[in-house]
Design a protein that fits this description.
- By secondary structure, the protein is of the alpha+beta class.
- It is built from 19 helices and 22 strands.
- The strands form eight sheets. It has a six-stranded mixed β-sheet with strand order 1-6-8-7-9-14, with helices on both faces. A three-stranded antiparallel β-sheet has the order 21-15-22.
- Strand 4 (33-37) and strand 5 (43-47) form a beta hairpin.
- It is extended, with a radius of gyration of 32 Å.
- The termini are far apart.
């Protein structure tokens, strides 16, 4: 079976069809669900839908779903589909677009992609690509993908047809066909002016397009200390701080009286509209919910009581400060939920690169537990710190809380080791960083610019100078008059 896309669906929205394919974030149409393995080898069913504003890859997945297996037909199925460049790289690792590319490539269905000249189609001047897929690759092509850059093969039309101003000549089609059949690299020719011309071909392994997206963590370091200014925002919901502060400043303790805020609902809505704030129903409900205001007041009161007991002295050891807060809460018989305690501690602490690292957990690991970590991360015991486990003098291991503002992500080629990449590219620059392997996602993208880019040396200064002087001579000294210099002097200098 051969399937072709007759009209390139560039940027075609499928938002009107989303309700038939997805319920919220869940895909309900099995055509757009694929099974892929995570970094640890565990298989899972994942989303294979692109963003709703661009249906190109959805269109391609529909055709993939209709492919007849090679067991049914000896020749299997082949697909030729025309795309713009977004299908090659749009979407980060783990996104629907990346999952589609990954599924097609890992199942060895992507045979060839051909880059076409610009302005080849009537309705667009952008760069376009032909994707060739098959589920019955010949033995010589298995596990590999051919990229053909034919964007310099064209002849100009005598008259433009819309955006279309060029076409393939028969010899161009023959050149592309032969390159496809030969399945061998072709180096692009360079003319006397150092300009590229003709066709270029490269052949890659499937894995060459894949990468690991991994999070690199750094330890949180915090100073802490109570003050009236720092605990004041605890009266308000962080997401609703502006309207709640306005209500508090306007009405004071009246906001805690039963029914008062319900009567201010219209005034609240008007104020929010004046400020350009759009609130959903849940947020509007919180603003007029007296019990919610009282709950936040209780948290502020608890912080005030802690400040009286602990004092306002600052410290660079957040770990000791946190322990003191915990002990004081217990001694004062103040009960806070885990979320409330976290909000309180966040309110009275801040990042300081010179402070102590914030401890997350302490692990008194047995030899068996240490071996388990070594096997999981595929490293030596000494290298466990590269994965966030730090050996202490008593034989236990510490993990540290990560600083979210310092968190970074690295893209590591599938053919490389994440740990090897980390040691070579990250640790020499950030000694205390570690790898968060639980964050790893696998992505695929194809970059024609990276694979076919050829640097063109800049012209020499002498050559540029000669051209400028020649233009100056043709302009009858106009530039020299503007600049207030003599042309003869410049020519003499050039000679």
């Amino acid at each position: 079976m051969i399937s072709c896309s007759p009209i390139p669906p560039y940027g075609k929205s499928w938002s009107s069809e989303v309700k038939y394919i997805k319920e919220g974030k869940d895909v309900i149409d099995p055509r757009f669900q694929v099974e892929l393995a995570d970094y640890w080898g565990n298989k899972e069913t994942v989303d294979a839908t692109p963003r709703s504003s661009d249906g190109q890859l959805l269109f391609l997945m529909e055709m993939v779903n209709k492919m007849k297996p090679a067991g049914t037909s000896p020749l299997g199925s082949r697909i030729a589909s025309v795309h713009n460049g977004s299908s090659l790289f749009t979407g980060d690792a783990g996104s629907g677009e990346s999952n589609i590319r990954r599924y097609i490539i890992e199942n060895d269905m992507l045979d060839t992609i051909i880059q076409l000249p610009n302005n080849l189609f009537y309705n667009t001047g952008i760069t376009t690509y032909i994707w060739l897929l098959t589920n019955a690759k010949p033995e010589a092509r298995k596990g590999r993908v051919q990229l053909i850059d034919a964007n310099l093969l064209y002849r100009k039309l005598r008259k433009n047809l819309g955006d279309k101003n060029c076409e393939f000549a028969p010899e161009h089609i023959e050149t592309i066909t032969n390159a496809y059949l030969d399945f061998a690299p072709i180096e692009r020719e360079i003319d006397a002016n150092n300009d590229p011309q003709g066709i270029a071909v490269q052949v890659f392994d499937n894995d060459d397009f894949g990468y690991y997206k991994v999070t690199i963590e750094r330890p949180d370091r915090r100073r802490a200390g109570f003050s009236a200014e720092r605990i004041a925002p605890l009266r308000f919901d962080k997401a609703l701080r502006e309207p709640m502060e306005w209500l508090w400043e306007t009405h004071g303790d009246k906001v805690y009286e039963p029914g008062f805020l319900k009567g201010e609902a219209k005034a609240i809505a008007a104020w929010c509209e004046e400020q350009g704030m759009t609130l959903n129903a849940k947020q509007r409900g919180k603003l007029t919910d007296t019990r919610y205001w009282l709950k936040l007041r209780d948290l502020h009161d608890a912080a005030t009581a802690l400040m009286k007991q602990i004092g306002t002295q600052e410290t660079d050891d957040f770990n000791a400060f946190r322990d003191t807060v915990t002990k004081t809460l217990k001694a004062q018989k103040i009960k806070l939920t885990a979320g409330e305690k976290t909000a309180l501690l966040n309110a009275v602490s801040w990042y300081d690169e010179h402070a102590h690292k914030v401890i997350d957990k302490r692990y008194p690991l047995s030899e068996e537990g240490v071996r388990g970590l070594i096997e999981r991360y595929g490293c030596t015991e000494e290298a466990l710190s590269d994965f966030g486990y730090y050996l202490q003098d008593d034989g236990s291991y510490l993990t540290y809380e990560s600083a979210t503002d310092l968190r970074d992500a690295e893209s590591v080629p599938l053919k490389d080791s994440i740990h090897h990449y980390f040691l070579a590219e990250v640790k020499p620059h950030v000694e205390e960083a570690w790898i968060n392997l639980d964050s790893v996602k696998i992505g695929y993208e194809i970059s024609f610019n990276k694979y076919f880019y050829r640097h063109k040396p800049l012209r020499s200064l002498d050559e540029v100078t000669r051209d400028i002087l020649a233009l100056e001579k043709q302009a009858d000294g106009l530039i020299a008059d503007i600049l207030g210099v003599e042309v003869a002097t410049k020519l003499e200098l050039a000679e």
